[in-house]
Inverse folding.
């Protein structure tokens, strides 16, 4: 077992443990903090896969912006924890059972039916980070220019939508 | 060298945890966080495959997914704040006023 594999397994353990912590925490703030840790772990995976730009975007946008927004809303609403009352007693075991079936099925199909794929390419020495970023930027602004512009319109629409939704209605006399 | 299958299996596990979160939690904010976790698992699979086939397309798609997730969170949290203002709760079991 080489060092890469040990590193991968350790990180995978952290990712799964933080995801489970997010799922099982009673307090919503703890859930959000576990999710931040999970996002940072996935960013380290992106670095391992040779995608430094995506890793940094992940930390900036997900861990930085989105989760701060989540924490802000949780504290604004005071919605840390809800009273526990089970409405449907069979719902939770059934959900866990179905999710287990989903996980086993998808893993089984991928392992048995999919064509054998190669190993993940390590970021080798000849392609350094700067040329990698330059190629990514060129692809983004030439081949994928139209989706990029459409994304800007989408962000504008989302901003207007959020402002309109939380705006105070003027009382009509 | 790490086989790409390991990344895909990890992605499937994270996605399943997100599905369980949507199914068993009743706090609307936690359900929302589980959706973010599922998006993240899909992104991990995208980047792993783009690393295998040595192409940038997967990474660029992940970039767009991150932008869409940011827009989704802005609108979704605004909706949750509005629901809290009218219902004084974000328990999804109590949002049954549209039930026929």
């Amino acid at each position: 077992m080489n060092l890469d594999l040990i590193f991968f397994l350790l990180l995978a353990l952290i990712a799964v443990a933080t995801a489970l912590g997010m799922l099982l925490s009673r307090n919503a703030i703890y859930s959000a903090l576990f999710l931040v840790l999970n996002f940072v772990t996935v960013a380290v995976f992106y670095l391992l896969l040779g995608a430094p730009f995506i890793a940094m975007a992940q930390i900036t946008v997900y861990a930085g912006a989105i989760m701060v927004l989540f924490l802000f809303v949780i504290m604004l609403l005071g919605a840390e924890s809800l009273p526990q009352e089970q409405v449907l007693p069979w719902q939770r075991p059934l959900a866990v059972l179905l999710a287990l079936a989903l996980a086993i099925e998808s893993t089984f199909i991928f392992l048995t039916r999919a064509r054998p794929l190669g190993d993940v390419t390590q970021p080798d020495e000849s392609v350094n980070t700067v040329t990698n970023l330059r190629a990514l930027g060129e692809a983004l602004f030439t081949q994928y220019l139209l989706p990029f512009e459409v994304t800007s319109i989408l962000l504008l629409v989302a901003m207007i939508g959020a402002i309109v939704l939380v705006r105070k209605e003027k009382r009509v006399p | 060298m790490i086989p790409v299958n390991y990344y895909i299996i990890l992605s499937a596990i994270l996605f399943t945890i997100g599905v369980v979160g949507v199914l068993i939690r009743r706090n609307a904010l936690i359900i929302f966080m589980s959706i973010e976790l599922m998006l993240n698992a899909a992104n991990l699979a995208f980047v792993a495959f783009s690393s295998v086939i040595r192409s940038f397309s997967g990474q660029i798609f992940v970039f767009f997914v991150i932008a869409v997730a940011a827009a989704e969170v802005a609108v979704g949290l605004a909706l949750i704040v509005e629901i809290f203002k009218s219902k004084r709760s974000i328990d999804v079991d109590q949002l049954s006023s549209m039930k026929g």
About this structure: The longest helix of chain A spans residues 52-77.
